[in-house]
Structure formats: C-alpha cells, structure tokens
C-alpha cells in the first residue's frame, strides 16, 4: 500500500434546518442512537483524518457542547453567518491553514452514509490524483438537489443547483450527495474564486467543480452503490423516512449474524446496541443506547430497553428498563419497570407490576408481584411477598434496605429504610418493618385481628350478606366461633407454621413452601 496523503475532514453543520421547524438545530436531531451529525462523524471516522473540523453556526453552543461529548477531538469552527457551503468550507480551512493532502467534506445531514462508501470515495479520489471528486447517486426523485451535469464524454462538467438549473438540467436524475474529496491546495485556489452570482446569493461549494473543470483540472464522480445512503434530512417527514431505512439496515444486519427478529417493522434497534447469537427479539421492541442482549436471551414483545444489559438466556417481557443489568437466566415482566441501578443476578426474577431502582437482587431471588424495590440489597434465593414497598424516602433523604439470603418476606410488607432483614428470616404479611429482623427470626408488625361475632346479622339485617352468613352458620360450614384464626403475634411459631398463616409469602399466600 502506498502512503495515503494526510487527510482533513470538514463537516458542514451550520445551517438552521428551517424546515425541521425545531428549537433543536437540525444536525442534533436523534436517529436510532446517534444525532444526524453523530452518524456523519461515525461514517467519516475510518478515513483517519489528522484533523476533523465541524462548521457550526445555528445553535452553535448546543452543537459545540454535543461535539465535546461525542467527538472531543473534533474542532468546531464558527461560521457566524451562513453565506453558503463554499463559504463554510473556506472558513474551516482558514482555521486549519496547515491542512494539506485530501480534504473530505460532508454535509452534516446525510446520516445513512456508510463508512465504506466514504472510504471508497476517498481512495478512488486519491488513486486518480483528482482535484475534486463528488459522491453522486441516481435517484427517482431529484427534487431540490444539485444535479451532476456531465460533458459529452461522460466526464463531470459542473454541478448545478435545482433553483439555478435549466429545464433540461432539472430532468437529470443523477444528484450531488453533498459528500466530496478534494485536493487541499486546488480546493483553496478554487474557493478563492467563488462568486455569489446565483439564485441564493451564496458561495456554493459545488461551483468549485465547474471552476476546476474549466481550468482543465481532473474532477471525478464517484457513484454510490446504494442511493439511500445519500439521502439528506430536511424535514421531519424525511427524518421518519430515514429512520425506517436505518431500522431495516440494522435489523437485517443482526438477522444475518444469527439473531431472530420476529417483526422487523416494529423493532427499533440503535446502532450502538449489541446482540448475541440466537437472541430473540419479539415484536414492538426498542433497544436503545448502550443496550446489550446476550446469546439466547428473549426480549419482547412490547419492551423498551435503554442502556440495559440482558444476560445469556434471560427473558424480558412487556417491560421498560433504563440503566439496568439483567443477569443470565433472569426473568423480567410482564409489566416491570427497571430503573437505573437495578441489578438482577443470575436467575433472579422481577415479575408483574414491579418497579425497581438502585436495587441489587441476588441470585435466584424473586420479586414476583406488585412491588416497589428502591435502594435495596437482597441476597440469594430470597422471596419478596406480593405488594411489598421498600420505603426508601423519608421526604428528605433516601435510605437503603438490606435483606439477606433465603429470606421469605410476607405479602404487603413495608420496609421502612434503613432497615435489615437477616439471612433466613421471615416477616409476616401486612407488616410495617421499621426495625431489623435478625437471621432466622419472624418479624411481625401489625394490628391483631378480632372478630365481632354476629355483627352482620345485627347491623345489616336482611341483607344478602346476612342471609349468606345465616345459611353458612346453619350448614355448619363456618369456622367454629370458639376458634379464632391463629395470629402470629400471639402464637408459638410452630403453630403458626402449621396453620400456614405466618408469612403470607409469595402469591399473597399462606404456604411459604410453594412461594
Ligand atoms: C447541498 C448542495 C446540493 C446537494 C445537497 C445534498 C450546495 C450549494 N448544494 O444543497 O448540490 O445536492 O446539498 O444534500 O452545496 N451549511 C453550512 N453553512 C452554510 C450553508 C450550509 O454549514 O452557509 C451546511 C448545512 O448545515 C448542511 C449542509 O451545509 O449540513 C448543506 O446545506 P444545505 O443548505 O442543506 O444545502 P442544500 O441546499 O441541501
Ligand atoms: Ca440539504
């Protein structure tokens, strides 16, 4: 391989994007995991530029702040007034007078562009020793775009904007994608000669091609294999169209690596997501940000995962998770909400209508139903009863609840943090646990039940309830009046266990052994 000349990348991102009708600068609109300009920078990254310049103008502060996050090595260059794409490149190169070799210019709003295409354009340009090379594409509807005007020999004569084009030229369907490679020195020379004698009174970068061609310099056209890559984004309808195309590209890519995507039309996967082999993504699922789904895991239907990892063979069903870790073989949902800091170890379960936050849920531990688990650490193989609330907030500060391993907590418990429940401990259903429960103890904290015999007959005489009670008493199916239900607060633990009423663990249930 011969030594490539030094390369400079210039991304044009100063325009307002009027037709987006947005407070957000156009290039900052998100598209499946990156902003528009983020996609363009990613596509340009493999050319290995010594310098990357991004021309900013409209919303410069916002765009600059975003660049600091996603591309700290890039240099923002302010184009205070937007006098056109030629003006923008001129200003960029004035900020980088040392740049020589190849200058690659990319519009900031062409997010489907592939890195391979940029690389192929640059390599073709450098191989040919051209002064300028434009990426072109044949499209069905060229409306609004610059047209490639070829000379009789098929070479590039010039690029004409639609508004400056003749009727004949408007019929040309070969368009300028807004992606170019230039020889730095010859680009500088031509930029100095740009006029503003056009319909918009702007300095058009595209005029560089006509100027160089007229000067006898080699100008070239590199045709994109896939015209979709060259699509720009001017309004939100186009943005939605780009999103669909990118969705399909991403989904197809994963299916070819061995991921099952049941319904690609309703599956939206960010470019930043990773998926393991034999993962199954069911319909109506969004996978966003730094989400990673491991081998053999099943996600969906109806799942949104943001920055969440899902372990080998785990399942996530009809749920929403942000910043969570779901361990190997763990199960989530249906209808769970995992918030940041939720960490489910191997084979843990977070079930139906359960919300978790900053919660470590140990191996094999289950939180099956109707609970809020906030700021908690739970050991291994424990079971949290239905309808439990980890009361983590005292109105000012958040506190932590720690529950040990092999614990069985009753249904409808409140754990008023800070509080601890030891290994192997139980708690009774309906308890408000405000102080620690030692290992192996049964914690009970609730009012004692009393039954007022005959109350319905006296206070609701003639009601359906009274009649039903009467029938039951006649038939002798009622509990004997002299044997009140066992109550954990008064009974020996043995008795309590035999009657299965102590914990009310699991399915709001009586028998902890089946929970
Ligand atoms: C441009 C091309 C057109 C091409 C099309 C592809 C010119 C004159 N025309 O047209 O041939 O088919 O892109 O999408 O170049 N920008 C600046 N500063 C400016 C003006 C623009 O940074 O002063 C940026 C914009 O933010 C945008 C890019 O340059 O990212 C293109 O500008 P835009 O106004 O969208 O150009 P088009 O009219 O679409
Ligand atoms: Ca445009």
Number of strands: 39
CATH topology of the domain at 7-139 and 176-230: Spore Coat Polysaccharide Biosynthesis Protein SpsA, Chain A
Overall geometry comes to elongated
- Could you tell me how far the N terminus lies from the C terminus, measured between alpha carbons in angstroms? 67 Å
Please report the first level of CATH classification, the CATH class of the domain at 7-139 and 176-230.
Answer: Alpha Beta
Describe the structure.
The chain is α/β, with parallel strands linked by helices and 515 residues long. Among the domains are: 7-139 and 176-230, Spore Coat Polysaccharide Biosynthesis Protein SpsA, Chain A; 259-404, 3 Solenoid (UDP N-Acetylglucosamine Acyltransferase, domain 1). Strands 13, 14, 16, 17, 19, 20, 22, 23, 25, 26, 28, 30, 33 and 36 form a 14-stranded parallel beta sheet that branches. The chain has a 7-stranded mixed beta sheet with strand order 5-4-1-6-10-7-11, sandwiched between helices. It is elongated, with a radius of gyration of 34 Å. The structure holds uridine-diphosphate-N-acetylglucosamine and calcium ion (CA). Calcium ion (CA) is lined by residues 109, 232, 234.
